[in-house]
Design brief:
With 179 residues, the protein is of the alpha/beta class. The chain has four helices and nine strands; from the N terminus they run E-H-E-H-E-E-E-H-E-E-E-E-H. The chain has a six-stranded mixed β-sheet, with helices on both faces. It binds guanosine-5'-monophosphate.
């Protein structure tokens, strides 16, 4: 698995430090409030769990699964595969995402969730690829801006592999062809 990684873009210690900073910002911005975190499966699972351990507020946690990717290519069509179990009406909501690329997924989530009347709705993403944006989305909390490279690790996969790497790495071309 690690032999398929061309380059470590963001190390485990850089991720740890940045996740603590993001949690600190959220703790400050939402002081005295209850925050409803929506994790976007599957890529968010490590980020969300590390982030939540640093949150000092009352929280709700729920998950959605949406799909627009197959392999390394976005299909452009976003679908809900798994919906929330709880209502977000009147709640302060933060969507927790692994990466914002074209912006299509977050645009879909914002439109979909805003119809459910949350009190507020913001995006927190670990990674942001601004050069790939097809549609503008307002990102309140962003961990790292990265170049237009297909990355894996810390929850992000390629065909369901590499999610358990503790860092963000760039896949070798050969690994993309072989898998
Ligand atoms: P968007 O809709 O913004 O184009 O893409 C969002 C989703 O595409 C992310 O949640 C993630 O699942 C997937 N994605 C986008 N870029 C990458 C990438 O570089 N690596 C991986 N593994 N997934 C990506």
């Amino acid at each position: 698995m690690t032999q398929d990684i061309k380059e470590i873009l963001i190390s485990q210690s850089q991720i740890d430090a940045r996740v603590k900073e993001l949690a600190g910002e959220i703790n400050k911005d939402y002081k005295g409030k209850c925050v409803f975190f929506i994790g976007v499966l599957k890529g968010c699972f490590l980020f969300l769990s590390d982030l939540l351990k640093e949150i000092k507020l009352d929280t709700n946690v729920d998950f959605m699964m949406v799909s627009s990717y197959s392999g390394t290519q976005s299909s452009g069509v976003v679908r809900t595969l798994l919906d929330l179990k709880q209502s977000i009406e009147g709640k302060h909501v933060i969507i927790v995402e692994d990466i914002v690329d074209s912006g299509l997924t977050m645009n879909y989530m914002l439109k979909n969730l805003s119809t459910r009347n949350p009190k507020s709705l913001e995006i927190c993403t670990l990674l942001n690829k601004p050069s790939c944006r097809k549609i503008k989305v307002p990102i309140k909390y962003s961990g790292f801006e990265i170049p237009d490279k297909f990355v894996v690790g810390y929850g992000l996969d390629y065909n369901e592999i590499y999610r358990n790497l503790p860092y963000i790495g760039v896949l070798k071309e050969s690994a993309i062809k072989e898998r």
